[in-house]
Structure formats: structure tokens, C-alpha cells
Write a structure and sequence with these properties.
mainly alpha, 4 helices
Length: 116
Amino acid sequence: MNSATGLTGLGSRDWVVQRVSAIVLALYTLVVFGWVLCHSLNHTLDYTSWYGFMMTLPMKIFSLLAILSLAGHAWIGMWTIFTDYINSSVGLRLVLQTATVISIVVFVLWGVQIFW
């Protein structure tokens, strides 16, 4: 029987999705921090260079991948927390999961709007 609220329906696939998304987010963080560090050392960190870096097609795609990875990572993490720690009230868990889904969808749409 598959879970109605899990991301993939299987715990092992959710585990893999969460680990892959964590790797994507770690790489994205390293790339962005590395760029900021290099430009800070050269005293060329300004809005124009930042905009030029972030609005290139590879960074737009990487940013979109990072946003989607963050959404999947957040949903699996929050779903796990809600199912593990909120056992007494199914209604409360449903409300919290619904609020989480709405928040994640809003943040993903907002992120896509920013980059595209």
C-alpha cells in the first residue's frame, strides 16, 4: 500500500530523493559562496556582476533545480516530522501538511518568477 501523502510512496525512494536534493543544494551553495568569495576578494562584488552571474542560462537552470530540490527536500522532511511526532491528532497533522504544501508551492512559484 502506498502512502497518500509521501512524495514517492516508498520510504527508500523518499530517502534517495532527500539525499540527492541535499547534494544539489550543497553544490548550489558552494557555487554561490565561491562566486561571492572570489568577487569579494577582487572588490568587484556589485549588483551588476551579481545580476550578470545569476541571470546566465546555466545559473538559471541550476537555480531552478535548487528551488525544486529545496521543495522536495522540505516536503519529505516536514512529512516525516509530522508523521513521526504528531500522532495524537490526524486533523492537526492534516492542517500542518496542507499549510506546508501551500507554502512550498508559493515559494516554488515565487522562485520561478524571480529567475524566469
